[in-house]
Design a protein that fits this description.
The complex is a heterodimer. In chain A, the strands form 2 sheets. In chain A, strands 1-4 form a two-stranded antiparallel sheet. A two-stranded antiparallel sheet of chain A has the order 2-3. Chain A is an all-alpha fold. Chain A is globular. Chain B is built from 13 helices and 15 strands. In chain B, the strands form 4 sheets. Chain B has a 5-stranded parallel beta sheet with strand order 2-1-3-4-5, with helices on both faces. Chain B has a 4-stranded parallel beta sheet with strand order 7-6-8-9, sandwiched between helices. A 3-stranded antiparallel beta sheet of chain B has the order 10-14-15, covered by helices on one side. Classes of the chains: A mainly alpha, B alpha/beta. Chain A: It is found in: Cell membrane. Chain A: Keywords: Cell membrane, Membrane, Transmembrane, Transmembrane helix. Chain A: This is Urea ABC transporter membrane protein.
Chain lengths: 369, 411
């Protein structure tokens, strides 16, 4: 009994040691940078896990919030590099004066605040509009997806303002640090890894709180929650805004880690890829979202390096395989394997007592959340 | 109870971080500066989109580059060593180009990389190559206004393609021009240059329209063009959009005689996709055609067909990619090493007879001297040259030699 209680924190500590001690010691700088990238996606996935796994809101357009955060950061970095001049892409796009939208981003505090506040604000407004009208399920999913598509068209069309299809790239300096230096990239990796850990703990706390129970209740029976006197729209809006804030923060971390932000990262396909990653990891558990993002990210890199010609097939096959064999994702598979083992053990010991009544969904949630 | 256990878990994690932060200095990051030359082979990177929207074009360039590597290996390699290509997929996704470029440089430690097609992919790779002081050979015509010390541009810059195209239209007496392009940096920059040229040469721009990359609905745009009654259309559409645009023009009854559409992104490969019936008779501007008559081209076309199939065509970007490998090999031979700075220094002035004719590397801006050629698409899908610049044109990416362009290149 005691041992079981230690398991969650034990796994967390082990993963943390792996991420913060073992990985930086063993991995080459380039691979460590890739891991930092996967973890940026993991933060977005965590937000999706919260909104979709716990709250039942299938958000297919998280790329929008990722992009808002990323562009806010990139605009700041561009302005710092330009040192009072126009950013390079504006020169070749024929822009002669710094657009008003860009001006406040020269201030680092404003830029960093916008990274989180911008996405949260937009998600709140959208959430209030949509959830009050009781738009949910597939309609909500389609709406978020359309938002992602529209956002990309907007970004591409405003070349002088956003860099168009190219996006923003070629950054030199991050708060006085040389971005090309290995030490800066190492520091960034630690920042991303620690942010992922802290956000996971925060999200876990949220799920275990009264609010979290309410959120799950809204997912499983929105009308019943309403009849009990709660306001499901508010619960959903808050959750959606938090997941948007996470995506924004991830975008801002992504920019210095990878060195580019472009519409190709925010559209429908990358947004879907993240949802797929959450499904692969196991959407009912927050840890599943993180695991899924890292596994899918790693799979994408190694498949494409090994089989430059046909890696997309492998990636698709991996998704289909996981979804058919383990609809609850990798973590769900682990949980049911453990249950099966426990059942066999009780059967062998001849214990007449049936295994603990476990609705699988609930069980998974309690174990890992 | 449960919470306190969790707290200790977090504490262990925090402790571990503190320990690495204080004690663990960076791992031995073997910053091996032995650029790909170690051992008895030389690794070179090839980085094109093998999946996604750009794959259809970029795969052909990869094929041409692999052919060049094969030929060079068959004739003894470079500095007595065989070349081993490391092929990566940029996946039509700009951040992926940056990631794979980093991988080629840092992990595979390639001596040089051949890759890219879209300007966006080049812009994404540029910081990677500049920071790592590694070499990229970029094989496609582009919008100019760039000259990175770590990129060699083997395709045309604007004064070797767009300006000759405009000269040709002017010679033909075309005064009213309509601009049609995809919405990204190349068409927008090209059109800026075209407008400046028109203002200085008494030409009139009747309209300027952009559609998103991959756009395929052209009835509205075609109506606009037809109603404006231009003498010619300057087309900077890229990829699939050309298929829809030319089909629509054809069904609107526009003929190449009354309203020629000059394209700068339609080569032999694209003509197959558009359908010869829709585009025959229209002019294009490039530096090389499959029909270009040089001994080197005869060899190139024959070798390409032998390796990849008799139905394959060769095009300008393919030839530029094929050239890139030979030019790098020539520079490495002259430098006596594949070390990047030595190769860069040796490259200036290297002149090689290529399928398009004599190609000389300009040591200053690392572009090529290239002959401009205007061609007309024939009913058999090939392109017949109708005009050329007579001699290779000195590359001028910032258009410094053109007074009318002085306002364009303050970058």
């Amino acid at each position: 009994m005691n041992l079981a209680r230690l398991k969650g924190p034990g796994v967390f500590a082990a993963v943390a040691v792996l991420a913060l001690v073992v990985a930086p010691l063993l991995l080459e700088p380039f691979r460590l940078g890739l891991l930092a990238k996967y973890l940026c996606f993991a933060i977005v996935a965590l937000g999706i896990g919260l909104a979709w796994g716990q709250g039942g809101m299938l958000a297919l357009g998280q790329g929008v919030f990722f992009g808002l955060g990323g562009y806010a950061m990139a605009m700041h970095l561009k302005l710092v590099d330009a040192q009072g001049d126009l950013p390079d892409f504006m020169v070749w796009s024929g822009v002669e004066q710094l657009p008003a939208l860009w001006k406040p981003f020269a201030n680092p505090v404003f830029a960093l605040a916008m990274v989180v506040i911008g996405p949260m604000l937009i998600a709140t407004v959208l959430g209030l509009l949509v959830f009050r009208q009781r738009v949910r399920g597939a309609y909500f999913a389609i709406l978020t997806q359309a938002l992602a598509a529209a956002f990309v068209i907007l970004l591409v069309g405003q070349q002088g303002l956003t860099g168009g299809t190219n996006g923003l790239t070629n950054f030199f300096d991050l708060f006085g640090q040389d971005l090309a230096a290995d030490s800066t990239q190492r520091g960034l990796y630690f920042a991303v890894a620690i942010a992922t850990g802290l956000l996971y703990l925060g999200a876990r706390q949220l799920v275990n709180s009264r609010f979290g129970r309410l959120l799950v209740a809204v997912r499983d029976g929105e009308d019943r929650v309403r009849f009990l006197g709660y306001d499901p729209a508010r619960v959903k809006t808050v959750t959606f805004a938090i997941s948007a804030g996470m995506a924004g923060l991830a975008g801002a971390l992504f920019v210095p880690v990878v060195g580019i932000i472009s519409p190709a990262l925010l559209g429908v396909v990358p947004s879907l890829e993240l949802v797929v990653a959450v499904a692969v990891g196991g959407r009912f558990a927050l840890a599943g979202a993180i695991l899924g993002a890292v596994v899918m990210g790693y799979a994408k890199t190694s498949f494409s390096e090994q089989f430059a010609d046909g890696w997309l097939y492998l990636q698709g096959a991996l998704f289909i395989l996981v979804m058919t064999l383990a609809p609850k994702g990798i973590l769900g598979l682990a949980a049911s394997a453990r249950d099966a083992l426990a059942r066999r053990r009780t059967a062998r010991s001849g214990d007449p007592e049936p295994p603990p009544a476990d609705a699988p969904g609930r069980r998974v949630m309690e174990e890992v959340a | 109870m449960r919470n306190s256990v969790w707290r200790s878990g977090v504490a262990i994690a925090a402790l571990a971080t503190a320990l690495t932060a204080c004690g663990g200095e960076a791992p031995a990051s073997e910053s091996a500066s032995v650029a790909g030359g170690a051992g008895d082979t030389i690794k070179v990177g090839i980085l094109h989109s093998l999946s996604g929207t750009m794959a259809i074009s970029e795969v052909t360039v990869r094929d041409a580059e692999l052919l060049a590597i094969e030929e060079i290996n068959a004739s003894g390699g470079v500095l007595g060593k065989k070349l081993t290509p490391v092929v990566e997929d940029g996946a039509s996704d700009w951040p992926t180009f940056a990631e794979k470029a980093t991988k080629l440089i840092r992990q595979d430690k390639v001596a040089t990389t051949f890759g890219g097609w879209t300007s966006a992919s080049r812009k994404a790779m540029l910081p990677v190559f500049e920071r790592s002081k590694a070499l990229l050979w970029y094989p496609v015509q582009y919008e100019g206004l760039e000259s990175s010390p770590y990129i060699f541009y083997t395709g045309a810059t604007t004064n070797q393609q767009i300006i000759p195209g405009l000269d040709y239209l002017k010679e033909q007496g075309k005064k009213k021009i309509f601009l049609v392009g995809s919405d990204y940096v190349f068409p927008r920059t090209a059109n800026k240059i075209i407008k400046a040229y028109a203002a200085a040469n008494g030409m009139e721009i009747l309209g300027e329209e952009y559609t998103p990359l991959g756009h395929t609905e052209y009835s509205t745009l075609t109506n606009k063009v037809v109603q404006a009654k231009p003498d010619a259309v300057f087309n900077t559409l890229n990829g699939d959009s050309n298929v829809a645009f030319f089909k629509q023009l054809n069904s609107a009854g526009v003929t190449a005689q009354e309203m020629p559409v000059l394209s700068v992104s339609v080569a032999e490969e694209e003509v197959k996709g558009i359908g010869v019936d829709n585009i025959a008779g229209h002019p294009v501007a490039w530096n090389y055609y499959q029909t270009t008559e040089t001994p080197a081209n005869e060899k190139f076309v024959a070798a390409f067909k032998a390796k990849y199939g008799a139905d394959k065509v060769t095009s300008d970007p393919m030839e530029a990619g094929y050239n890139a490998v030979y030019l790098w090999a020539a520079a490495a031979k002259k430098a006596g090493t594949v070390e990047v700075e030595a190769v860069r220094k040796a490259a200036g002035g290297i002149a090689v007879e290529r399928p398009e004719g004599l190609v000389t590397i300009d040591g200053e801006n690392q572009h090529m001297y290239k002959t401009a050629r205007i061609g007309v698409i024939q009913p058999d899908g090939l392109i017949k040259e109708v005009w050329n610049s007579g001699e290779p044109i000195k590359p001028d990416p910032y258009l410094k030699g053109y007074p009318w362009a002085s306002g364009l290149s303050n970058g």
